[in-house]
Amino acid sequence: MTTPAAPRSHGARPQRGLENVSSSLGVSGRFGRMFRNLPVFEQNEDDLLALADTMVQELEKPIDKKLGVKDDDENPEIPAGYTYLGQFIDHDITFDPVSSLQRQSDPDGLVDFRTPRFDLDSIYGRGPADQPYLYADGLRFVLGNKVSQAPERAGPDLPRNPFARAIIGDPRNDENLVVSQLHGLFLRFHNHVVDDVESRWSGPERQAGKDDIFKEAQRVVRWHYQWVVIHDFLPRILGGKLDGGQGAKIIEDILNLEHFKTGVDGKTGPMTVKTFRPRLLFYDLECPPFIPVEFSVAAYRFGHSMVRPSYFFNDFVREQIAGSRKDDEPFRTLIFSEDRRPESLSNLNGFRPLPPEWGFQWKFFFETADRTDGMPQPSYKIDATLVNPLSLLPDKVADNDPPFSLARRNLLRGRALGLPCGERVARAMGVEPLSPEELKVTQPSLIGNTPLWYYVLKEAELLCSAHHLGPVGARIVAETFIGLLWGDPLSYLRVEPTWTPDLASVGVFGMPELIAFTEDRAEHKG
């Protein structure tokens, strides 16, 4: 549903218990199962912890090379920005603050506190009527402070309260500075779309009210975002590089373009019309839209292996580090470290203000027009290895809930939610499963009973050169994404199936075009 700008009557929302957790407007979604008929066998906790510990790089200074110098851990087919776009998308469609790592949970009983739609409720919150403090004028988002006089590194930061907490629709989007700046990019994108709609709808020919202007801007933003998800992010994850990769073919097969005859145009007989009728083999379209736990707890967590230990993010900081570093110090800034000081310049830890001169230049993360040699820096490979900083997450990221190792957390969550093993999911899809020897699983309770998350990563590593997802992981992610889009009655796929983006030329619109639109408008506004 669109987010209303008109006032909501006082006391219209419940105020007690879990219902008082900030959630999406309207009915929140549900988690569920994609393969609900598969048996689940016990996985010993000690075996899971032992497997998790094999997945983390050894505790040593991360290999850190100059921009453009080959690093064997890099995946040259997917730029680093898509790691965090994936995190941003995840925060848009899933939020489970209730289930536990320590006890069994029934996925069918879990409430998803985000809508199972690509509707950007993580930025819109409950809208200007219900959360007016997110908006400057009932139309545009409040932005944070600029951190530099130089436009290319000015940010701005996210808006913050006196305690430095971000005032945004989803606080998880402040857990590291990369996703924080990405959230800010979408706030600015919305604001510039509002400018466009306002200029078109406020003239003498059409004098639209504020509510209509907001709804139209929100539709434009959401539809372009949905296009980015399905036609820029997803094909890279399914098939590696965007040009020449196989991802687009998988998406085309699932979207299933159909032609049918209708009416008579008065000249040549019945008209031929084209539309999409998704062909989903495992995601149940008969159910209300839901998030499969095979997706949220396993297949979609492939992005954790794409995280680099450190990043370049703007020219100023890059040159500053190059001019002061000692022989063994990194060229880049660590994604996480144990230095929790808000003013720290040693890491990209979140939940703090953006430091001075630290506004992100997206050429280091996406294929923007202003990039130079070696840009953007690649993501890391999709394999069964996580960089060492993810073995000790900051307590705020881990919700002060041990263990703080991301690999351990993921495997324990899969056990708590009773996920079927990777081999059984593969067979259910008609795919020949990997052998225990190929998977290199030696823990007794896991042989032939491989945790689905680990299986998806190992499959990508062995079958796809660690450049993109393999057959099991790709199908789970692709069907979930397209199932969610089809299940949203307000998505472009349901409202106007043959729509193409109109904020860039010839219908091509991905993250580079979204960035160009946003930053070009910012320049023209001065």
Explain how this protein is built.
With 526 residues, the protein is mainly alpha-helical. The protein has helices at 45-54, 81-93, 121-124, 177-201, 210-239, 247-255, 293-296, 315-324, 406-416, 422-429, 436-439, 452-463, 471-487, 492-495, 511-525; strands spanning 29-32, 74-79, 111-112, 257-264, 270-276, 290-292, 310-311, 333-334, 378-380. The chain has a three-stranded mixed sheet. Strands 2-9 form a two-stranded antiparallel ribbon. It has a two-stranded antiparallel ribbon with strand order 4-5. β4 (257-264) and β5 (270-276) form a beta hairpin. α5 (210-239) crosses α6 (247-255). The radius of gyration is 23 Å and the shape is globular.
What key attributes describe this structure?
two-stranded antiparallel sheet; 526 residues; 15 helices; 33% helix; Myeloperoxidase, subunit C; globular; 9 strands
The CATH superfamily is known as Haem peroxidase domain superfamily, animal type
Strand % is: 5-15%
Low-pLDDT runs of 5+ residues are 6-28, 97-103
Order of helices and strands: EHEHEHHHHEEEHEHEEHHHHHHH
Helix content: 25-40%
- Pairing-aware structural class of the strands and helices? mainly alpha
Apparent shape: globular
Q: Indicate the CATH class.
A: Mainly Alpha
Fill in the CATH topology: Myeloperoxidase, subunit C
Provide the number of structural domains: 1
Largest sheet entry: 3 strands, mixed
| Rg, alpha carbons | 23 Å
Read across the widest sheet, the strand sequence of neighbours is: 3-1-6
The overall average pLDDT, rounded, is: 88
Number of helices: 15
Compute the number of strand runs: 9
Terminal Cα separation, in Å?
34 Å
Architecture (CATH level 2) name: Orthogonal Bundle
